[in-house]
Design goal:
Layout (H helix, E strand, L loop, with lengths): L1 H15 L1 E2 L1 H8 L3 H13 L4 E4 L5 E4 L12 H5 L7 H6 L3 H14 L2 H13 L17 H10 L1 E8 L6 E14 L2 E8 L2 E6 L3 E10 L8 H16 L2 E7 L1 H10 L2 H6 L1 E4 L7 E7 L2 H9 L5 E5 L1 H18 L2
Antiparallel strand pairs: 1-3, 2-3, 4-5, 4-8, 5-6, 6-7, 9-11, 9-12, 10-11
Helix pairs in contact: 2-3, 12-13
Length: 323
């Protein structure tokens, strides 16, 4: 643990130029006294760490000092964030770059840390796609990724749900998002940002013209806003249910997380132990199979159209099984 902390302290000073003992203690979650000891150990090991007194003082490295890391190429540096995601790197066409970057990083580590890194890679594996669903075909992902890196506009032919189903647009790719094993393109076109599912892109033509990214664009922040708006558009109606205690426990397992998070308790529990709740739903058609998963643990109170459709479905099932 101490060796790891010393390396972290060194890298903090290398990346931030000057830090006080309190700043370092806060960043590393240790006491100021521990920082004093660690800085002394680094100095004793011959590393050029020195302190400056005064209001604007702090610890810093001698100008120009850098830890010795094997040099990375530009493409390897860009691919560093994917070294733990080999499947994603392969889909983006970055397998060679991520492999080379990983090898250079491993070579730069001391033998003990190199062994620990190898053990971690052999004992933890990240598998992104959800159960029972195959990986979508994304033949156009690599050229779109290249255009995103190099800020080139693309002309895409896209298959969407609404009419007209097939459209052609010229857009400026600002980012790619991997969500539950599926890739999405966030791009600006006609003055606004839209999100495109990569598997629904039928054709792509990377244009020669470069573009300037939107100033201040934050991909992570944009995606969070998009998800929130998507759930609001998707959940257009609400349903009132009477749910048993067992049904309440099963809500996170059987319902959409957004619906679970938005649920409201409106009454109960009653004499039979059932609690009345209100949840958002997409539509009557989409809600019926979702609610039937609960069996007798859920009773639909409203809307009447949903209750009627559940009853109709149950009667049809009874007829099928001769009950």
């Amino acid at each position: 643990m101490r060796a790891t902390r010393l390396v972290s302290l060194l890298l903090l000073l290398q990346s931030r130029d000057r830090m006080t003992a309190q700043d370092l203690a806060d960043a590393l979650e240790v006491s100021v006294r521990t920082i004093y000891r660690d800085v002394g150990s680094l100095g004793a090991a011959g590393l050029p760490v020195y302190g400056e007194p005064g209001h604007d003082g702090g610890y810093r490295l001698v100008d120009g000092y850098r830890t010795r890391l094997t040099g990375l190429t530009a493409s390897e540096a860009e691919a560093l964030f994917l070294t733990g995601l080999p499947a994603a790197a392969a889909q983006l066409g970055l397998t060679a770059a991520t492999t080379a970057a990983q090898l250079k990083l491993m070579a730069a580590l001391p033998a003990e840390l190199r062994d620990r890194a190898g053990r971690a890679a052999g004992r933890f594996h990240l598998d992104l796609p959800p159960w029972y669903l195959g990986t979508e075909r994304t033949p156009h992902l690599a050229p779109i990724a290249d255009a995103t890196w190099n800020q080139h506009a693309v002309k895409i032919r896209y298959l969407r749900w609404a009419e007209p189903h097939e459209i052609t647009r010229t857009v400026q790719p600002h980012g790619l998002v991997l969500k539950a094993g599926n890739w999405y393109l966030v791009a600006r076109g006609e003055g606004r940002f839209r999100t495109y599912r990569i598997s629904r892109i039928l054709d792509v033509d990377v244009l020669l013209q470069p573009f300037d990214r939107a100033e201040g664009f934050d991909l992570a922040g944009h995606w969070e806003t998009y998800l929130d708006q998507f759930d609001r558009r998707r959940h257009r109606d609400t349903a009132v249910l009477r749910v048993t205690h067992r049904g309440l426990d099963r809500l996170p397992q059987l319902l959409d997380p957004a619906a679970v998070a938005a649920r409201k308790i409106t009454a109960g529990p009653d004499a039979a132990g059932r609690t009345e709740i209100e949840i958002p739903i997409e539509s009557i058609e989409a809600a019926v199979p979702e609610l039937l998963k609960f069996g007798a643990d859920v009773e639909v109170v409203a809307p009447e159209a949903l209750r009627t459709e559940v009853i109709r479905t149950l009667r049809a099932m009874n007829g099928t099984y001769g009950v």
